[in-house]
Amino acid sequence: MAELLSLEEAVTRLVHDGDTVALEGFTHLIPVAAGQEIIRQGRRDLTLVRMTPDIVYDQLIGAGCARKLIFSWGGNPGVGSLHRFRDAVQHDWPVPLEIEEHSHAGMANRYVAGASGLPFAVLRGYTGTDLPAQTATIKPITCPFTGEKLTAVPALNPDVAIVHAQRADRAGNVQMWGITGVQKEAVLAAKRSLVTVEEIVDELEPRPGAVVLPAWVVTAVAEVPGGAKPSYAAGYYERDNSAYQAWDKIGRDREQFTKWLNELTGVKA
């Protein structure tokens, strides 16, 4: 059953050096506060996983938390490149970063396989692309029934999955709505899970189209109002486009980024 913890305590208990960590959220409900708490606690040697790494992953990479990134698309949405990501790949700053690139469909199916207890997923989506030649975890497979040439990708089972949602009740049941991406699949695939929420309530009110994660699949819940900013949380706040634009200038320059990082972690210049 899920425990109700502070964000600091939850990250301390659940995220360890060397872990494979997935922070999922698609344009919406991105667990930014949790990612920044990982930075504050100085986690190292992480394998970061996400379908669409954006600025919180740029921050984690720039802070030296990551040794590897498993992803399908990376960028500052609506703005441009992730400059800390680029610097790590091209110049090993602050540490070298290994990358494993997939398609969106490949990543989603890897989570589904992990959540289903299967060793791999099969799809058609990589046919005609150059990704199989670049990524060792994309393999050809032949359908035993039709002889069709398909592609297999291994299941994803992160050590810990972190997502953000709108609400949880005091028993640890979680409710989210709006664009929900692969949060459910990531939580079900992971060995441990942390859900940050806008608020903890006495009772979850039914909502059309909402996803409910029952307490028995969640390890910990932390109440973190505004925990998805500068992304948005439907029903609570809108996306802060100016923050994404401002990040381009911060992330582009090592000195500017180091100043931002020192402010985040409380290190005096």
TrEMBL record:
Pfam families associated with the record: CoA_trans
Name recorded for this polypeptide: 3-oxoadipate:succinyl-CoA transferase
Species lineage: Bacteria, Bacillati, Actinomycetota, Actinomycetes, Pseudonocardiales
Family: Belongs to the 3-oxoacid CoA-transferase subunit B family.
Keywords: Transferase
Keyword Hydrolase assigned: no
GO molecular function, one term: CoA-transferase activity
